[in-house]
Every structure is written in structure tokens, then in C-alpha cells.
Specification:
This protein has about 120 residues and is of the alpha+beta class. The chain has one domain. About 20% of the residues lie in helices and about 5% in strands. The protein is built from 4 helices and 4 strands. Strands 1-4 form a two-stranded parallel ribbon. A two-stranded antiparallel sheet has the order 2-3. The longest helix is centred in the first third of the chain and has 12 residues. The radius of gyration is 14 Å and the shape is globular.
Length: about 120
């Protein structure tokens, strides 16, 4: 699950922040470990573009529309209809280096499309 950068999270940035780009391998391993054992797995609160494409079927558009924000990098993205985007509390300090617009072709390579909404 991604993190909302408000309240105590904001106060404890140094202890909490890890770029999602840096934990995709661990997230994939943990997700498939649980999935093959029949445990339901969902990935919440991350922009779709930072997710390893093999995890697409576990992704959920989970940020409520009244809290949802798409930054400038998202304006040409083909996935905004299926992406959680960012919390309105977002700042670049909490932004992954892997944020980028996805093409329609990128979406075809995501496993598990179409995406569900939470």
C-alpha cells in the first residue's frame, strides 16, 4: 500500500518514505507468495505507472475521487481512468522517480486489465 503524506506520515518522512521503484521486486515476491497460497491480495494507493506490469491484476484504483489528484506528468497518460493517481496532499518530496505517462500499448502489457475500482 502506498502512503498518504499527511499527519504523522508527514512528520516521520525520513523513517517512512521509500520510493516504490525501489521495492517492486519485494512487492512482487510477497504478492505472488500470498496469491499462490489462495490469499486475496490487493495493491492500493500507488500510481499505476510505478507498478511492475506483472502486478496489474492485483492493482486497485483506491483513492477516493475527492482526495484524488493527477499531476502534470499524468496529463498525457492513457491510464488515468484506471489509476489511483496521487492524494491531494501530494508533494514532490513523496514522488517516485518512475512517474511517467502510460501509453495504450503499455496498458495492453499490464497483466489483469481491465482494472477494478475499490
Amino acid at each position: 500500500m502506498g502512503i498518504e503524506s499527511t499527519g504523522l506520515a508527514k512528520k516521520n518522512y525520513e523513517q517512512l518514505w521509500m520510493d516504490p521503484a525501489d521495492y517492486q521486486k519485494n512487492l512482487s515476491q510477497a504478492t505472488f507468495f500470498l496469491d499462490i497460497r489462495g490469499i486475496a491480495v490487493s495493491i492500493y494507493n500507488l500510481p499505476l505507472c510505478v507498478l511492475d506490469p506483472v502486478l496489474g491484476r492485483f492493482y486497485r484504483q483506491s483513492i477516493s475521487d475527492w482526495k484524488n489528484l493527477f499531476i502534470d506528468a499524468c496529463q498525457t497518460c492513457s491510464a488515468t481512468h484506471a489509476c489511483a493517481g496521487f492524494f491531494k496532499s501530494h508533494s514532490t518530496k513523496w514522488q517516485s522517480r518512475n512517474i511517467h505517462p502510460l501509453s495504450a500499448d503499455d496498458l495492453k502489457h499490464m497483466q489483469g486489465a481491465p482494472y477494478e475500482t475499490a
